Amino acid sequence: MKSTVTKPETIDEYISTFPEDVQRILEKVRQTIRKAAPEAEELISYQIPAFKLHSNLVYFGGWKNHIGFYPVSSAIRAFKKELSVYEGNKGSVKFPLNKPMPYGLISEIVKFRVKENLKLAELKLKEKAARKSDSCKSLFIELLINTIESKESFQLDTGYLITITVIQ
After folding, report:
1. Burial 91-111 (b: 16+ CB within 10 A, else e)
2. Which residue, among 113, 69, 122, has the nearest Cα to 91 in the 3D structure?
């Protein structure tokens, strides 16, 4: 039997499936995240709203009695004290619909995640550069060996002319 429920493709579509009072809360959560991470990209992932900045930033979703917020485990650990009044687990927290939504805390957590993601992206770039550098070194060594074997000269892009003379 085929399901008639369509999966949302945008956050607007997702939010529109909830009662108006919950829609207002979800939209305010969305705007809070957007303000804390203006460069982040909005998307639907795992059928719930998500934000991505170089990699996954945070997710959120509406449920019958709560708003689920999924900032990954590092943020849950970093805000353990502040989140201790809410239900949750390793990578998520439940904000009850019948209590004030902690928009300020959500903003702080998102800013924390932005810093984490930017730092991770920087580390990945450095790692990529190091791999490229290693690749260049390997290529240079291979070129050097070939030159030694053929007793030729070669020009580097840097403008240096290297002549290898093999003495036997």
Report:
1. ebbbbeeeeebbbebbebbbe
2. 69
Topology classification of domain 11-122: Aspartate Aminotransferase, domain 1 (3.90.1150)
For the chain, domain boundaries: 11-122
Based on the number of CB atoms within 10 Å of its own CB, is 83 exposed (0-12), middle (13-18) or buried (19 or more)?
A: buried
| φ, ψ of residue 109 in degrees (nearest 5) | -65, -45
Instruction: Specify the range with the lowest mean pLDDT, choosing from 60-64, 112-116, 152-156.
Output: 152-156
Q: What is the DSSP letter of 7?
A: P
The confidence band for 1, taking pLDDT boundaries of 50, 70 and 90, is very low
Per DSSP, the three-state class of 46 is coil
